[in-house]
Write a structure and sequence with these properties.
five-stranded mixed sheet, Immunoglobulin-like, 4 domains, 3 helices, rod-shaped, mainly beta, disordered N terminus
Length: 453
């Protein structure tokens, strides 16, 4: 069966080769057929009939009495009839051409679909074909169409038209994003997982900008030099984090004019690497330390003061603890029965412990900002008459009852978390009846805690 056929010409030209890298277009053509009328013979017959009729009429006028008159008259009649019949045939055939019948792929129910270019469309039917539509699809961008096959073109039997179409190259990918890195370790090489931009179909430029930033294409080696990247190729990005904490390094990757920034931010200075924690509880008015019983057979009430260290530092580790006391108006050192520092986990260290009868004088044994520090040179004297009292403001001492008497130093808190409620407990042991004014007060106390991550 005859049909409209396509002869596809494939040339190894730059156009064809480049089109292989782009999206492949599809051209869909619909048409309708018009009957071709054999008008030439009929037209000649009509013309002959008219000529013969004219000859017959002229002959009859010039030779009205000729013996051939009847024959000529008959010829005129036949010629007229032939002309009428021929004219009617032409009119009918002309109407057949104008009033064409729609056949959308008369011998094939589907439109013609073309996917290879350039191509020649040839009509080898016995009827003419009228292009009713020529549509291009399959391109990411506007197609570049050329050729003579266009809507409204009529191709007669044996006629041809040409088609050559390509998709314009799309070198602009869709937007892409990086996952930024935070809390990075300083001076560390950070590599982002490869990304594969989409939404483009031709090789396009790729570049990277930023301090210590590098890229690679399909793992082909790290570089800072711009290059070309093709669809489906993966791109890697890496950089070295800043040598400073809480500092951001930015790498800008640009692919076909579309950019995104890969950011690497180092962690802020560790809370646990900060300066020693210093917390003070001040009592205003000062917290009274009640006298003990006059007989000295039992201790007075225990007074407790609290310092809270925030949970922010719960992940930190104690490396050193110092305690500063501000206590006034103790007339007898024997009055101060004990001073205990308690960790939030309830472990405790006694930093002061006087034994009744250890001194014999009415000496002012106040603690004017006295620091208890395991690294101090010496310990407090338990004899208020040895010349070491009254104490110098800000003086430092080891815990008053160092091993083996109490068995614990402030360093026993080392390795623990600083967070929670610390307590200082103090009590009086002796009552002189108030004659010497031995009642004391706790004005304030301070915890200085060195920590590490």
């Amino acid at each position: 069966m005859k049909n409209i056929r396509f002869l596809f010409w494939t040339a190894f030209s730059l156009t064809c080769l480049s089109s292989l890298a782009w999206a492949q277009p599809t051209v869909t053509i619909t048409y309708r057929l018009s009957h071709v009328v054999p008008v030439m013979g009929t037209g000649m017959l009509l013309l002959l009939g008219i000529v013969l009729s004219l000859i017959g009429v002229l002959w009859s006028r010039r030779n009205p009495n000729s013996s051939h008159g009847k024959l000529v008259a008959n010829l005129v009649v036949v010629s007229l009839l032939t002309s009428v019949i021929s004219a009617g045939w032409l009119v009918g055939k002309a109407q057949a051409v104008i009033a064409t019948t729609d056949y959308l792929m008369s011998e094939n129910p589907n439109p013609i679909v073309m996917t290879s270019f350039p191509a020649i469309l040839e009509n080898d039917l016995d009827v003419a074909a009228l292009m009713t539509s020529v549509e291009v699809s399959g391109c990411l961008t506007a197609p570049e169409y050329s050729g003579s096959c266009e809507k409204g073109l009529q191709i007669f039997s044996g006629g041809t038209c040409s088609i050559n179409t390509v998709c314009a190259p799309d070198t602009t990918p869709d937007a892409f994003t990086f996952t930024d890195v935070t809390d990075a370790v300083v001076s560390t090489l950070i590599t982002h997982a490869d990304i594969t931009p989409v939404g483009y179909d031709s090789a396009t430029a790729v570049s990277i900008a930023g301090t210590a930033c590098q890229m690679n294409i399909n793992a082909a080696g790290w570089t800072t030099v711009g290059a070309n990247v093709s669809p489906t190729q993966a791109i890697g990005v890496r950089t070295t984090s800043s040598a400073s904490q809480a500092t951001t390094v930015n790498c800008t990757l640009t692919v076909g004019g579309v950019s995104d920034v890969f950011s690497v931010t180092t962690a802020a200075a560790s809370l646990c690497a900060s300066s020693p924690l210093v917390y003070t509880t001040t009592h205003s008015p000062a917290l009274l330390i009640p006298n003990g019983p006059s007989s000295g057979s039992s201790d007075g009430p225990i007074i407790t003061s609290t310092i809270n260290v925030p949970a922010t530092y719960s992940a930190c580790t104690i490396t050193d603890v110092n305690v500063t006391l501000n206590i006034t108006k103790l007339r007898f050192s024997v009055d101060l029965k004990m001073g205990i520092v308690t960790h939030p986990d309830t472990s405790a260290v006694t930093i002061i412990h006087y034994t009744p009868g250890a001194d014999s004088g009415a000496v002012d044994t106040s603690f004017p900002g006295i620091v208890f520090d395991d690294q101090a040179a010496g310990k407090l004297s338990q004899n208020a008459d040895d010349g070491s009292w009254p104490l110098t403001t800000g003086a430092s001492f080891k815990t008053h009852n160092a091993p083996p008497a109490s068995g614990l130093l402030l360093s026993s808190f080392n390795g623990k978390s600083p967070s929670g409620s610390w307590r200082f407990k103090i009590s009086d042991d002796y009552n002189d009846g108030g004659s010497l004014g031995d009642t004391g007060t706790l004005n304030s106390w301070t915890l200085t805690i060195a920590i590490s991550p």
